[in-house]
Each structure stands twice: as C-alpha cells, then as structure tokens.
C-alpha cells in the first residue's frame, strides 16, 4: 500500500539496497547475453572530490541514457571509476601533514609518503562514489576501477613503452609552465590567465660602440617589458624587419645593462611596431614567444630563474659565460633572491644608472596555476613529451568523416581548432603520486625505457658490455646479483600527467592490454557525456590513444553539456558564495527532484540557471504523481491479467492510450537525439496535464459511480497508464518510479529491468557481428532480436477519441482562461452558448455536459445560430463558443484595469530596452546581469500580449 506522504529519503535508501542486492546494473547478465551492448564510461571524478553540481548534471544525463537503453533490452555497461588526480591528491595529503604538524613528504621520503597517500585513498577515496550512488547512478559498481589499479597501471606502462619505441614519446629540453609552489611542470590547460594591474618598464639598452647617455637617443635602443627581472637572461633584441626606425641597427649589438653582455639586434615579425617602442627584449629561456624567436635566430638560452622562482646566477655557467670582468659580483648580490623582490631591486639599480626611460601603469594577463594560484614561470627544463601532432591526425579525420560526432555539432569547430594547432604534450610531472615513468638512466645518462626494471637492466647491461664500459663477466655478475648493480641504473623520479592514464580509460578499464572478452564486447563505447572544459584535457586524448592502440574510435557520439550556473546566470564559485551543493538539495527535496530539474533544463548549447525553487517545483511534481498513484490504488485500479489497452471501448480510455503512445514516441525520439530537456518536458506534460489534470479528473465520475463494464475498463486503464508513466519517467526519476512500481504494479521483477514501451530498433549488421564475435564458437548466438513488448502501444492511434476529448479539454481550458482574464470570481457561474455547432459537436456535447459545467464553472450549455450580444467568443477547434458576460462583469472597470496593466508592461519593456540599447551597459555589466534584463524584456512582452488579447475579447463583450 502506498504511504500517505511522499518521503524521498526513505524511498532512496530502500531502493538503493534493492538495486544493489539484485545486481540490476551488472553488465553481462545472463538474460542479456544475446543483447546488443551499450557502453558509457564515466568521466572518472578525482579521488579527492565530492559531488558538485557539474557532476550531478553529467551523471544524471549518463544515467538517463543507461536506464533508457537497459529498459530497451540492451546489455548496458556504465563503467565507473575514479582518477588518482596526481597534483590534487598530493596537495591534499601534504596539506594534512602540515595541518597536523607532521613531517613533510621530503622528510618522510618517497616510499613512506606514498604509503600515506594510499592510506588516505582507502579512508576517503570512496566519498564521491557513495555520493554518486545517492544520486541514483546505475553504474556496474562491481567493475569499479581506479587509474592506479594494477591492471590500469600495466596499460599505462605498455602505452608509454610502445609510444617511445615508435618515436612518439621523447625527451626534450623546452620551456614548460612551471609552478614554483608545487615545483612541477603543468600543462597549458592547467594555467589560468588572470588580469593584473602592473607596470610596463621602458629600458634603455646601450648600442655597442657608442657612449651611452640618457640624453642621446642615438646611443641606445628602448625596449618595453613587464618583467624586468628576466633581462638578466636576455640574448637578443628584436625589431620588425619593416620598421624603418631600426633598419640600420639590425645585425648590430647592444650591451645588456648591469650585466655587460653583448647581445644582437635581430629582425623578426614577432615585434609589433605599434606596441611600446617597437623593440622587444628576447629572453628565450623565460618566455614562450621569445623561445621561438630565439630558435629562428640561433640565440642562446640562458636560464636565470630556478625552480623555486628565485634568481639563479652563481655557478650558472650559461649566465657567466662571456661576461666582462666584475659582473660576477652582481651575480652574488642577486643570487637566490625571489623573482618579485629581485624585480624591484633590479629596477632601482637600472634607474640609478639612467637605464630606465619611463614606467607606465599597465593592465595585462598573467598566468597562474589553477591549483596553487601561484604565478607560472616559463622554465627551461628536460621533460618527456608526446608527439601529439602525429597522433592528432587520425583523431581529426575521424570527426571529419563522421565516425565520431559531437552533439551539439558546433563543438567540432572548437575540437578542430585545438587539434590542428596542437603542441607537443608534456607528460612528465615532478610529483611522487602517480604512475612513475618507466625509464632508467645509465651512468652516462643514457635512457633505457622498459616495462620492468629487470628488462631495463638487461638492455643496459647489454649496451654497456657492447660499449666496453663493463666486461661481459661483470655484466653477467650484475645480472645475477642485484647488490652488484646497485646504483648502476637509476629510475626517472617523475610521474606521468594524470591525463595520460585517463586517456586510456575506454579500453584500460575493460582489461586491456590483456585479451579480455570485455574489450571485444564493450569497445568501442557508444556515447561520451562530458563538459566542454575537458574536450582538450580528456576527449581529444582519448580519441588519439583509442585510434592508435585499438584502431577504432573510443566512442561514436560525444555529447557536450553546458555549465550549471546560479539562478541569475553567474558562474558558481566559492568566492562569490553562490555555490549550490547538490547533496543539500538531495537532502531537502530528494534525488529525483534534482535529477529531473537538471534534465528538464539541459537544453543543448544553453547553460542551466539553477534556482532552488525549480527543484522544489519538481519535488511537487513527484508528489503529484505519488498522490495520483495513491488515488488509483484507493479506487482499486489495477491491470488485470491479459488486459489489452488497444481493445478499450470507452472514448476517454482510448484517448489516454492515444496520448500515451504519442508521449512515448516523443520521449524516445528526444532521448535518442540527446534532447534531454524535450524528453523531460514531454513526460512532465503527460503526467501533470494529461494524466493527472485531465484523465483522472474526467474519469472520476465513472470511478466513483456504480459498478459497470465501463468502470472496470477505466480502473484497468488508469492503472495501465500509470504503469506506462512509471516506465517513461524511470530514467529521469528512478527512485519514486521503482517504489511505485513495486507497490502498485504487482509484477515480478524490477522496473529498472522492465521493457520500454516503444519497440527498439533491430540490431545493425555491425552490432550483430559484435554479438557473434562475443558469443564465440562454443556459445553460438541464440537470437539477435531483442525482447519485444506484447503490446507496442506507441503504434496505437485513435484520432476520433483525440478529437472528442481534445475538444472537451480545449473548451474548458479556454473558458477558464477568459474567466481568469476577466477577473470573474469562482463562485460566479456563467452560461455557455455553442454557436452554429456541427452535428459532431451536437452529438458529443450532451455526453460531457455535466463534466464541462463542473470543471468550467458554468450554469448552462445551450445551442444557437448566433452569439448573444455582450458575449466573448472563443474559437475551439474551428467552432465558436460564446460566453455571455453582460451583467456578469463591469466592462468599463475591467477595461480601465487592463489599460493600466498594459501601461505597466510598456514601462517595463521601455526600461529594459533602454538598458540593452546602452552599449556601455552591455559591454561592462556582468553577463548574468545583461541576460536578466533580456529576460525581463521578454517577460514584459509576453505579459503585454496576454493583456492585449484580454482587451480584444473585452471589446467583443461591449
């Protein structure tokens, strides 16, 4: 029996246990052995993480797809797991050590520190998984993976070794984004550009052979810089090759102030004659653009800032080479001074010698680490790289050919722009937590890449014996005795970028590189659901790795969802204090309400403006369904054995079957097209408007009347339509639907495994081939067809029933609308005249007179050839209905009221349009503020349109 009140918390806890105990979400169930597989891999959340609104949206949409396809008979694998999140996790554990005043990682040593991280992972690493379960995620939790599981680690090592063997992984000395706080390289994608108010320093560089004088412009060239501290590493000055001011100076030298080093003036298109002085200092070791300029002109790379962001000048051979006598003293003075403190002191020194022409305020973008918030330092260092350009080519071709498609399609442009301009991918990180790079170094620095240390030792010993560095006998002894080779080769201490391992996620989670049957059955996956912010981090890299190692794209469809913002359209952030915690919403309104809210608002290409009131509204929607189901139960509505809705005789019952079929097609097609909001909207309208507001209300006279065949049929149909609702709504609101199914449907089995109301498509030839291969020679494919429902009601239509019930509903709706517009009190009954009614209307009206009078608040229904004087005329499905309002309302007073309301609407429109026409307002106001004004304008326009329609009707009654 259904409880009186809907209590989401009780239901969710109970249903979670039911699903888990029944293994409802397990892939490869015996009953699905012959079913076509459907696979989605979860974007693995960080093991450090907890559920945020982006996770809630992303996983709700994935779950809708998985539950939908599971109900369509597919063998669904929703692969769950978490990412080790190298930097983030290491930061968490190091912060814990600091807060507890315990030894830091360097004092602990690598081995002890990693033990501590694994301990933390065991204690706290499952937090987000449990939160995803609270959301209702129907993953196959028995297959949960972690990017540092033994199997996945084996895949990472194999991929690194094979790519290195193929020349696609290599070591190079290049500039990287260096985080001086975390002491590691980070990728471009982990850098946030932050607007900073700083300065632009104009510095005078003396020209070689001329006596420098601040008053003599011919004795120096002026360069502009935002980072004067890097001038110590300058190895050139660049001017534009067509800048006439400097043509005679190209090829000559200037003397680097304070340092005395001679550096060359070069002509390069990078220099912009319109900016600053038109001349720029070139510091190849501390600026990415300068690095390229230096490469083009063969300029030296002199690194003067160390890994901790301090000047590194003493014993720096690159810096000290070619310095005039006495410059070494300057090196000692500034050695190990923080870069920002050094900036101030260097500028002071330059000013004292007359080398500063002027200083201007300058607002510019400065790169910061997205985790440390430290200013990023371009740093010249040896790192491991992937030849991303080569790997990107087939990944670009796969999207261009349509083998993989983006939804919405406009994201393909973003994908192509990044992939076609892709840079080498720096994959090494100076961390301890992560997959340690499988490279070992010999005594002379030669690199040996291998899957195991033993294999690396074997390669190294063979190489050094051949080079006669050691004898063959020494080599044999060292191979047999570990102690004798201690320190002979050492392993690279760096670990791999977190995204390297997650790039393998679609196939490493299935058991690759082992010959696991799951790889053949579930790869490639069907859809990837993710946010636009990791198209480059993750999506592109999965495409590259999947095509290279599996020779197939990892997924056929990439659905990119938008951001969840606050109700005003602002991006959620802790600093703004507008973050909405999904777990709080689940606690207050239930997971189903949150899920339905997110799905209903997930229009393609449009950010979600989330208001708590929307979640509350969909909780009320769930309550509405609960109460309707309870009403059905209290009126003994149940589906009898062998009931066939297509054979219903009552017009009302045939109408609900017709509407149910229409909604089923609408919901199915929308989910298939990733139009989640349209699917949610269709089922919402059917439940609230069609089933609850109309069908149940129109059926009440029969249900509450005497026993009869019509009553029996209506009871069965009320229950049948309710069950169809539970099926259609289940992917969106799984908890309440499963609970009601268990209590009211009285069927064997779970709703999660019930059949979807619309017959699924037959398997494609490609799918049949996958099935046949997966079955194998000893277990032949029994039946390629999916199980079909007995009554595929989505093929059912009854235009005649729809015409009759639709006329009743439209008539009542329009009468209610006029009563509301005209402020007619509910207690005041009005008459209705059907004008020039057709024979069909004259026939159906008597059948529904009592219902129409009750629901539309009418005193009488009559027929006439013309509308009475003072009547408002309604056009209902091509026929005229008239409401005589003479004596019912004060027409003059009502017209005055409407004119006043129209005036208010006009004022609101004018106010909003005035702001939107102001270019400064649109350019400077926050995006959410501008959008709010647009919404105000649209709301006022809509309000005015309704008021004008009411005024038009009022004039009819005059």
From TrEMBL:
GO terms for molecular function: valine-tRNA ligase activity. InterPro entries: aa-tRNA-synth_I_CS (IPR001412), aa-tRNA-synth_Ia (IPR002300), Anticodon_Ia_Val (IPR033705), M/V/L/I-tRNA-synth_anticd-bd (IPR013155), Rossmann-like_a/b/a_fold (IPR014729), tRNA-bd_arm (IPR010978), tRNAsynth_Ia_anticodon-bd (IPR009080), Val-tRNA_synth_C_sf (IPR037118). Belongs to the class-I aminoacyl-tRNA synthetase family. ValS type 1 subfamily. Residues 895-957 form a coiled coil. Pfam families: Anticodon_1, tRNA-synt_1, Val_tRNA-synt_C. A motif ('KMSKS' region) lies at residues 571-575. ATP binds at residue 574. It comes from Bradyrhizobium ottawaense. Keywords: Aminoacyl-tRNA synthetase, ATP-binding, Coiled coil, Cytoplasm, Ligase, Nucleotide-binding, Protein biosynthesis. PROSITE patterns: AA_TRNA_LIGASE_I. It is found in: Cytoplasm. Residues 18-610 form the Aminoacyl-tRNA synthetase class Ia domain. This is Valine--tRNA ligase. Its main location: cytoplasm. It catalyses: tRNA(Val) + L-valine + ATP = L-valyl-tRNA(Val) + AMP + diphosphate. Monomer.
